[in-house]
Amino acid sequence: MKRLLATLTLCLSLGLSVGLSLATPARAVQPDEMLSDPAQEARAREVSKDLRCLVCRNENIDDSNADLARDLRLLVRERIVAGDSNEEVKDFLVARYGEYVLLNPRTGGANWLLWGAGPLMLIAGLGIAGVFLRRRSTAAATAEAGLSAEEEARLKELLKD
Fold first, then answer.
1. Across the chain, what does the average pLDDT equal?
2. Which among 20, 65, 81, 90 counts the fewest CB atoms within 10 Å?
3. Domain ranges, ordered by start, for the chain
4. DSSP character string of 23-79
5. How many CA atoms are closer than 13 Å to the CA of 74, on its beta-carbon side?
6. Ranges 10-19, 34-43, 85-94, 117-126: which has the least confidence
7. CATH architecture observed for domain 26-101
8. Most distant CA pair in the chain, distance
9. Residues 6+ apart with CB under 8 A from 120
């Protein structure tokens, strides 16, 4: 019994420590990348949370350990030290790497097609489903009506052979 309690206690403590370590977000920003001015560092974090790591896809550059993400973090900090605003930094990176670098793409220009495609496809799918169900219900009603007198006569004639 003591052995069972000891094993359960060990499992619970290991599970709790592993669970707590997984619950905290991992930051890939290295101390040598950080700016000495806390206000500029906060701006850099604000900008980089909206930028996608081009290697890791759906991870922002602060959370990614990829070399390209490190380069992007350094570039963001370099532009902030140079005096660019947050939007100017994002515009610079979009001009350099394309709009894919933004985690939340802008809703303008050709992106309206991408933003509108989902709802349009949903409406089209609902329309197609409605037409299918309506045709199916009318076909079932026709089948339930039975055979006409001419059809029954023709059927009897065919069955005689």
1. 80
2. 20
3. 26-101, 111-160
4. HSPPP---TTTS-SSHHHHHHHHHHHTTBB-TTTSSSBTTT---HHHHHHHHHHHHH
5. 10
6. 10-19
7. Orthogonal Bundle (1.10)
8. 100
9. none
What confidence tens digit (pLDDT) does each residue in 102-136 have? 888 777 777 778 778 899 999 999 999 999 998 88
Measuring CA to CA, which residue among 28, 111, 36 is closest to residue 73? 28
Backbone angles phi, psi at 108, to 5 degrees: -155, 160
Q: What spatial distance separates the first Cα and last Cα of the chain, rounded to whole Å?
A: 86
Which pLDDT score is estimated for 89?
Answer: 92
Phi and psi torsions of 102, nearest 5°: -85, 130
d(CA 137, CA 140): 5
Please give the C-alpha separations between residue 158 and each of 25, 144, 146, 147, 150, in angstroms, as whole numbers.
78, 22, 18, 15, 12
Tokens 């350990």 sit on residue: 65
CB-based contacts of 106: which residues, under 8 Å, 6+ apart? 99
Question: What 3-state class would DSSP assign to 15?
Answer: helix
